[in-house]
Amino acid sequence: MTFKIAASPHTHQRRTTQQVMRWVYLALIPGVLVQTYFFGFGVYIQLALALFTAWVAEGLCMRMRGRPIGHAWQDHTAIVTAVLLAVSIPALAPWWIIVMGTAFAIVVVKHVYGGVGQNLFNPAMAGYVLLLVSFPVQMTSWPIPAELAQIQVSITDTLNLIFTGFTSAGYNLEQLRMGIDGMTMATPLDSLRNDLNHQLTLTEALNKPIFGDIAGIGWAWVNFAFLAGGLVLIKQKIISWHIPGGMLVGLLVPAAIYWLFNPDQAITPMLHLLSGATMLGAFFIATDPVTAATSNKGRWVFGLLVGFIVFAIRTWGGYPDAVAFAVLLANMCVPVIDRYTQPIAYGHGGRS
Amino acid sequence: MSAATKAIEAGHIWTFPGGIHPPERKDRSNSTPIEVLPLAKQFIVPIKQHSGPVGDLLVAVGDNVKAGQPLTQVGINNALPVHAPTSGTVSAIGPGRIAHPSGLTDTVITIDADGNDEFYSFAPLADYTSLSRAELLDRIRQAGVAGLGGAGFPTAQKLALQRPLDYLIINGVECEPYISADDRLMREHAQTIIDGTEILLHIAGCEKALIAIEANKPEAIAAFEALLPNYPQLALRVVPTKYPSGGEKQLIQLLTGRQVPSRGLPIDVGLVMQNVGTAYAVAQAVLNGKPLIERVVTVTGDNIAKPGNYWVRIGTTVAELLNQCGFEPVADSKQEQRVIMGGPMMGFTLPDLDVPVVKITNCILVPSNQELAPAAEEMNCIRCGACADVCPAQLLPQQMQWLAKAKDYDGLEQQNLFDCIECGACAYVCPSEIPLVHYYRKAKAEIRNIAREKAKAEVARERFEARQERLEREKQERLERHRKAAEARKKAQAEAVAQGGDNPQDAVQAAIARAKARKAAQAAAAAKQNQEGDDE
Ligand code: SF4
Ligand code: SF4
After folding, report:
1. B379, B384, B396: which is closest to A287 by C-alpha?
2. Dihedral over alpha carbons B460, B461, B467, B470 (to 10 degrees)
3. What Pfam families does this protein map onto (chain A) (predicted)?
């Protein structure tokens, strides 16, 4: 009688890549809901487009590389990439923006580098940066939070806008983004940096309806929602606290110091934390395990670096938000970080 | 006393990085006392059950043996003997399959039991302190005691190292899931284990022993707590439940905060570790003269009707053991059934059941596919770092995995592959279900092979060069000898001539002259005959 041969260990904790990824996109749901509440159904349409594109692109790549297609679907990493990209772009951006970005993320950033686990750069963020650099207007045209908009956009109009560029009444996106004062409304970070660049003081700059009470209408709540999802991930041990913690500290500390010395010229620490893609970036983007540092110490350094770059670009750089650039720049530093933060192996002189 | 030593004395428990908490499932086997199974009809005793050289055979086919009689001897290479598990007849000696991950064969002695189970007579020892250290070590070696917890390192050899020792550590942690052999032994035979520990302390010339038990064994802890007040030189240490806290290196880190240097031994940091089963066997050997012919084996898993712990004679086949414990493989799932020797984390699967239980066999696990699901298909590493988070040796398993797949052996050594203790924690958590340990083992074997080949080639080269050198030297010597001989001859000749003797040179000349003359005479005679013929 013969029995089955297997390599030890013979037991497994049964948390598969798929499950890990599923937790990640489940934890994104609160943020997506809140974002939809403030920025309209466009968010769902972008999500659908991104998922469909990712699905097709992933399948094609697997086929072309002669790998079983099933593997790609199974591990669910493409889903996470698609969702991250979809929530990062303006909800009413034309359809080809998200399609192009997702396809680029999956095909070039992920598969050209050898598929999941081999890519150097975070696919969603590389896709985002490509779009931002190529189509700056479309990529910064965030709709006005529902509370402030003059015209409420229906589902049909949302579809029309995304696919044709005009609502049925013939408005285009630019017109829709007009505030009550007849000025195009930028995102809080965007508006703030413009105004600060135009020598307005912080108090003057913040004196716009978009800022609301805390850190920009809508944006603060979106950030809180992503924070909540992120805490669930930490609780579930899907991610460790090192990267988000590092990133928030790396952003907050220099921001607070800078603000203390330039109280009238700097973005407030609160705005840094709760505006733009800060929480999404800290808990969902920078934590992408493939492209982050590996040891806990390394993750901490990586997070600090991302946070600091975000601060630096927001303060002195040419773009209003900076999470994508910061993550990509930090991705490039990962080999160096890993090298200098490699834990000392047992018996090689480390301390207990 | 330094601060660190003070902390050790005070019972401080350090931590080690990583580790996992797999389901323990020890309660299935640890609630009933250790049972003695009926004797088998046949026993298969491999002559090598430990690490190190094997002893010379003492028996031949047809010999009658008694239980405990040595089958191999220590001999000149200081080998570890094996003993007959029961009385009977040696029916075969030759290659047979042994319990080994790769299904190796080795020399085995087959004994047909006569059923009487007659024992060889052992000499008990009333006062072990009357014997010298060397005599005690010999007694332990003669009894065939090897480490029962791990690789089966001969106990006497470990104790023979004459180096300063701070502590002897008795390992009763048993962190591997399912296994409860040590747990039961500690509950039922704490006194014998303590006796063994005292003997070990005496031999090692060490002042203090730390007995370590994992927190999930309250009964065993209670058993020791009841006895230890009488033994000031023994101290109990309860370590938190975490796998692999029973690993030698991890336990040392837990109890002393020290780390065994890479490629070093515990004794390098003033420590020696023995398993509780070994301490028990030492007491049996020294006090009762009883050799190591049986041990406690946990038999457990969903597909075992009577899970529990059993006193099993060394040499009992796994098939026999499982029969006794009610194992019925489901006929159609036969191909899927795994029989694991050892625990679920570090044990290995047996291809068939005709292999014997040996000194290091602590568990036979027969799981259903529900309780321990078979490995799923391997997926790509997503570099999630979960493996690095749990690695107790602080390695980077994912890095090593890439390198192992790329066969980058230099890179692997740089990543300290050889400090991997193969605990399997990394593979346990890997969401892509990559059989990481399997890759490491393969890479280690390959690296060892390369080193061996290199050493072999080196030896061959040296041998070749030595031979060339020798031949050259011999040639030179031969020439020299000839030259000397010729010289000596010449010299002797010259001396003889000088003393007025015949010059041998003259004799040669004379002989040549003689031969010429003879030839000339013959020629003349022939010519004459021809002439006469012509005349006719
Ligand atoms: S746990 Fe598995 S998938 Fe994650 S980094 Fe380690 S080897 Fe890769
Ligand atoms: S098997 Fe090796 S690499 Fe994996 S966790 Fe254990 S020591 Fe670390």
Report:
1. B384
2. -140
3. NQR2_RnfD_RnfE
CA of B165 to the centre of ligand 2 (A): 29
Helix, strand or coil, per DSSP, at residue B330: coil
Phi-psi group of B168: left, alpha or beta (phi > 0 → left; psi -120 to 50 → alpha; rest → beta): beta
Other beta carbons less than 10 A from residue A287's beta carbon: 28
Evaluate whether B8 touches B379 at the Cβ level (below 8 Å). Answer: no
User: B13 at the A interface (CB within 8 A)?
Assistant: no
CA-based nearest distance B48→chain A, Å: 23
Residue A87 lies in a domain: yes
A203 and A166, same domain (yes or no): no
Contact between A46 and A91 under an 8 Å Cβ cutoff? The reply is yes
Say if B404 is an interface residue toward chain A (CB within 8 Å).
Answer: no
Q: Do A113 and A54 belong together in one domain?
A: yes
**B214: CB partners within 8 A, 6+ apart:** B172, B173, B174, B175, B238, B239, B240, B241, B245, B246
Cα distance between residue A218 and residue A221, in whole Å? 5
The answer to whether residue A344 sits within a structural domain is no
Measured between CA atoms, how close is A1 to chain B, in angstroms? 6
- Answer yes or no: do A71 and A158 share one domain: yes
In DSSP terms, B54 is beta-bridged to B80
Q: Is residue A348 part of a domain?
A: no
| pLDDT tens by residue, chain B, 536 residues | 688 888 888 889 999 999 999 999 999 899 999 999 899 999 999 998 888 888 889 999 999 999 999 999 887 777 889 999 999 999 999 998 888 877 778 899 999 999 889 888 888 888 888 888 889 999 999 999 998 877 788 888 888 877 888 999 999 999 999 999 999 999 999 999 999 999 999 998 888 999 999 999 999 999 999 999 999 999 999 999 999 999 999 999 999 999 999 889 999 999 999 999 999 999 999 999 899 999 999 999 988 999 999 999 999 999 999 999 988 766 555 567 889 999 999 999 998 888 999 999 999 999 988 888 888 888 888 787 889 989 999 999 988 998 999 999 998 988 899 999 999 999 999 988 899 999 999 999 889 989 888 988 888 888 889 989 999 999 999 999 899 888 888 888 888 777 766 666 666 677 777 888 788 778 777 766 666 555 44
For residue B491 the two structure tokens come to 């010299």
Question: Is residue B494 exposed (0-12), middle (13-18) or buried (19+ Cβ within 10 Å)?
Answer: exposed
Instruction: Please report which ligand is nearest the Cα atom of B394.
Output: 2
Look-up: residue for tokens 């902390």? B7
A190 assigned to some structural domain? yes
* Residue owning tokens 């010597």: B477
CB-CB neighbors (< 8 A) of B320 in chain A: none
ipTM of the complex: 0.73
Chain B residues with CB inside 8 Å of A10's CB?
338, 340, 344-345, 347, 349, 365, 367, 372
Q: What is the span of the domain harbouring residue A23?
A: 17-184
Report the alpha-carbon angle A173-A175-A178, nearest 5: 110
Nearest-angstrom CA–CA distance, B80 and B424: 30
Residue A115 and residue A242 in one domain: no
- Residues B300 and B29: beta-carbon distance below 8 Å: yes
Q: Which helix (H) or strand (E) holds B297?
A: strand B294-300
Query: Looking at the 3D structure of chain A, how many domains does it have?
Result: 2
Q: Is residue A86 domain-shared with residue A111, that is, in the same domain? A: yes
The secondary structure of residue A108, as a DSSP letter, is: I
Q: Are residues A110 and A27 in the same domain?
A: yes
Which of B23, B258, B351 is facing A2, going by the closest CB pair?
Answer: B351
Distances (CA, A) of A22 to A33, A121, A181, A283, B377: 17, 21, 44, 15, 19
Domain B9-37+124-312 has CATH 3.40.50.11540: yes
